Amino acid sequence: MKIDPITTEVIASRLGEIANAMEYALYHAGYSPILRESKDGTAGLADADGRMVMIGGGLQYHLLSYEQAVRAVKVRYPAGRMKPGDSYILNDPYVAGNAHAPDLVAVTPAFHAGALVGFGVSMAHKADIGGIVPGSSGAAATEIFHDGLLLPPVRFQTADGVEQDIEGIVRNNSRVPDMVMGDIRAQVGCTRLGAERLVELCEEYGADTVTAALHGLTAVTAQRLGAELSTWPDATGEAEGFLDHDGHSKGKKIRVHVRAVKQGNRILFDFSGSDPQATGPVNLIATVTRSVSLMALVATADPTIRINSGISGAVDFNIPEGKVISPARPATVNLYFPTANLAYCCVLSALGRLHPARAVAPSGLGTGGISIGFPKSSRTGKPDVLYELKATSLGGTARRDGASIVMPVSHFTPATSVEVLETEYPVRINRFDMRRDSAGAGRYRGGVGYVREYEVLDECVLTVRSSNHKYPAWGINGGRSPLPSRVVFNPDREDCELFDTIVTRRLKAGDVVCFEQSGGAGFGDPTERDPELVLADVRNGYVGRDEARQTYGQPLPDEAAAPRPDREDVAPDPALATASTP
């Protein structure tokens, strides 16, 4: 059945409204700060074949994981076993395609007149699903079974209510069961809302019309991306970057390499030059490697292209199994995001070589997270887990500076506010401000990094999941690398220590951990930067006077001093001074 473009766009608008309503329900019904504050979750709609049509939330790279999860549910619950009112959950990355085990997927089928017409889907991070440390993502993990509970597709809810046996299993495997179950119920609830609204849309327009619109939307995306690629010259571009290590073999850096080959209206991303899968937790599921590559392609080609399954139509991949970007089971994948960000930045750089007018400098590479497990929180009187994401900043472009404190790949995932952290957990945020001279210099500099310092008020178990303390992002067209990230334990004290990128440590009340996050890389020769922009950066405290003179070559009036001096930083590890860049 064919329908006219106007009807397709009207239905697309309605689908977007449904996805937004699902997203709103997810964030406002969620229990944990990682979901309701940091918005580490998405919700959307898939067609009856599992192809993603509409997604709400900032983590658009969930796209292909949604497809794999829906298809996994359909395999385990084929026609006749899947019924109206059912909802399913799953979180095994090798089955569902989710990035790591804490990212649980909820799936609810939508039936109209007895026929399957689509699915409501949601993916969201859980504060704790068991595993070897609070927060589940352990620094010492060497296999997926260390990462916590692994659920195949299981029926969580029917028309009669929640399956209490499944809920009991989940509760029994979490240190914070009430919080986790609250988030799961929020996820399942938003997918049921999406399924109901999709059925209502079918009742209003007819199931055949809605189905045709779903197919039409993905076809338009594929056509637009292919048409854009056909305007590019046929060429090949390559890029590579490095992680410090995998957390297990600490003397060995980890290489991610991509070769982009554009021919006609198609493009190939070849990751075969990347290192073999790691023993430690930095591996990246191949599904997510494909997703972040597609996000980089759309960002370079045309950001107005609607994100759905159609963006896969013009893209081929060569991702051999057994690489750090395509591990084989049972490799652990809990610290996937630094690798995902690195793969994304490598693809952006390779595409910039194919289309120099749209080149973008890489984001800061010091991404990751922090989890703090309190055996008995003085705030709640029971076990608690603080889990927070660590952002960096975006790289400069040919037209403007990079955005500051913005999560690469998932741009709309903010840090938890200081007020929420201090209210809900026994921590004090002593410092949260910009990190001077952290941005990569350039005609357009990268975004500025930041400093965030946590003081724990109770005994706890800390797991730092940082990255790229040795190998910062690389500049473009003469731009400079930013300062690498680092994590300082008890700064300004006798027991001060620079933490490695991946570490678990028991802390006592009063201990402090300070994250100094990298900025984005620079674009273009720094000496070509507008002097007024340099002066403004100095006055705002983003750039020091010495940096302005030495790197930007700008003489400054005496009154251009920054508003306040930064605290004297801890002396860096000498090994960091020799860090190389890709």
Describe this structure in words.
By secondary structure, the protein is α+β, with helices and mostly antiparallel strands. The chain folds into two domains: 5-223, no CATH class; 360-582, no CATH class. The chain has 13 helices and 20 strands. It has helices spanning 5-29, 33-36, 63-76, 93-96, 164-172, 177-205, 207-230, 286-301, 337-354, 418-424, 531-540, 545-550, 574-577, and strands spanning 41-47, 52-56, 87-90, 103-112, 115-125, 154-158, 161-162, 235-243, 254-263, 266-270, 315-318, 368-374, 384-390, 427-434, 450-456, 460-465, 486-489, 497-499, 502-507, 512-516. Strands 2-1-5-4-3-6-7 form a seven-stranded antiparallel β-sheet, sandwiched between helices. A five-stranded antiparallel β-sheet has the order 14-15-20-17-18, with helices on one face. 57% of the residues are buried. Residues 562-582 have low confidence and may be disordered.
Fold topology:
Elements (H helix, E strand, L loop, with lengths): L4 H25 L3 H4 L4 E7 L4 E5 L6 H14 L10 E4 L2 H4 L6 E10 L2 E11 L28 E5 L2 E2 L1 H9 L4 H29 L1 H24 L4 E9 L10 E10 L2 E5 L15 H16 L13 E4 L18 H18 L13 E7 L9 E7 L27 H7 L2 E8 L15 E7 L3 E6 L20 E4 L7 E3 L2 E6 L4 E5 L14 H10 L4 H6 L23 H4 L5
Parallel strand pairs: 10-11
Antiparallel strand pairs: 1-2, 1-5, 3-4, 3-6, 4-5, 6-7, 8-9, 9-10, 12-13, 12-16, 14-15, 15-20, 16-19, 17-18, 17-20
Helix pairs in contact: 1-6, 1-7, 3-8, 5-6, 6-7, 8-9
